[in-house]
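Give me structure tokens for this 128-residue protein.
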Amino acid sequence: QVQLVESGGGLVQAEGSLRLSCVVSGRTLIGYHMGWFRQAPGKEREFATTIRWSGGSTYYADSVKDRFTISRDIAKNTVYLQMNSLKPEDTAVYYCAASARYSGSGYYPSYEYEYDYWGQGTQVTVSS
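Here you go.
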């Protein structure tokens, strides 16, 4: 019933920018954390960032901190990932995910197994 659909990926040159979108249908997101993960070729899936849907507070992995910004539009049930100053090492499939387990806990889920719903991913390729 819950569906997450990512969009916005593509090919971009180093130092360029992209904005990814993730539209969520089928469920209210009150109390949820929305996250972005990425998986480079031959690598494990890696946490990038998460946002508390209700309060809007955020948490970032060091690899993307100060370059990426997560945000959400409550009216559109959409979470965004603004990616600036992109590097070739950012090349990966980017996945949107939703976690329903940590409402009010003060914890930011940052592991794959802590998320309950996943999108299909969108490819981001950064050329040098």
